[in-house]
Specification:
- The protein is an alpha/beta fold.
- The protein has one domain: Glycoside hydrolase/deacetylase (TIM Barrel, Alpha-Beta Barrel).
- The chain has ten helices and ten strands.
């Protein structure tokens, strides 16, 4: 075969390989190749310049954690997307992370908000309303409204006053306990909706305490999803009323922080 024949054969080979690559791409679109098998929900509580207690993450460490997520290809998604994923609806990007903060501590407004706005990331706050504009450590209703107005913060329920259901169940007669649980679930939702508008559909279990009866009560009250502090990643088929989260501490940096995150 002459030079022209060799060139022609080479062109045909290149064209064939291009067609094969196109066929493979059509059979395996990017969306099919990039499906997450798990996601991580992180939960913070309070921030500050120094570590005041085991639940404090210094503002500098929180900034470093957000920088790590940004620089290493993680996607911070709304919590509702993780709930849909667990329910078997829709897909998540690889390395999907949801960020939550419990309790309504004043440093969510002073320290967390500027960094959330810098990175333009969604955050879900779980609030127990009895503390708002009341406890010295808590935010005000005006601050919560300002957070919601940014479009970056969603607000959900953490019961009305963050009770320990184990203690209350031992302390109260069965009928009184049932009534108490209903009050904690219903009053929180009612107050948050009246003060801030919107619909409250998610719950964070105080102290991570839940059981079948509490889950049934939450469903009856109108909640469609709830989160715990069980330390593992979220997978499809997980119980929507007991989705796991990792409590983030000030020591969660580098490999230790990476261990909390989805591998793919």
């Amino acid at each position: 075969m002459g030079d022209n024949g060799s060139v022609k054969c080479g062109h045909l080979k290149v064209a064939f390989l291009a067609m094969l690559a196109a066929f493979v791409a059509m059979a395996n679109p990017p969306s099919a190749l990039a499906q997450a098998s798990s996601a991580t929900i992180l939960v913070y509580h309070r921030f500050g310049p120094t570590v005041a207690d085991s639940m404090t993450v210094t503002t500098a460490v929180f900034a470093a954690q957000l920088s790590y997520l940004h620089d290493h290809g993680y996607t911070i998604v709304p919590l509702r997307d993780v709930v849909s994923f667990a329910a078997g609806h829709g897909e998540l990007p690889l390395r999907a992370v949801a960020i939550t903060a419990d309790d309504g501590h004043r440093t969510v407004f002073s320290d967390m908000k500027p960094l959330v706005e810098k990175y333009r990331i969604p955050v879900t706050l779980f609030i127990y309303p009895s503390a708002i504009s009341n406890a010295s450590y808590a935010m005000t209703w005006e601050q919560l409204a300002a957070l919601k107005a940014t479009g970056l913060f969603s607000i959900e329920s953490h019961t009305y006053w963050h009770p320990n259901f184990h203690i209350e169940k031992r302390r109260l007669a069965p009928e009184a306990y049932t009534k108490f649980v209903g009050m904690q679930l219903n009053k929180s939702r009612e107050v948050l909706e009246r003060r801030l508008g919107g619909h409250i559909t998610m719950l964070s279990w105080p102290f991570g305490i839940y059981d079948d009866d509490l889950i049934a009560a939450a469903r009856a009250s109108g909640y469609v999803a709830a989160v715990t502090i069980d330390r593992r990643k979220v997978r499809r088929g997980d119980n929507l009323m007991a989705l796991p989260r990792f409590i983030v501490t000030n020591g969660d940096l580098g490999k230790r922080f990476e261990s909390l995150l989805p591998a793919q």
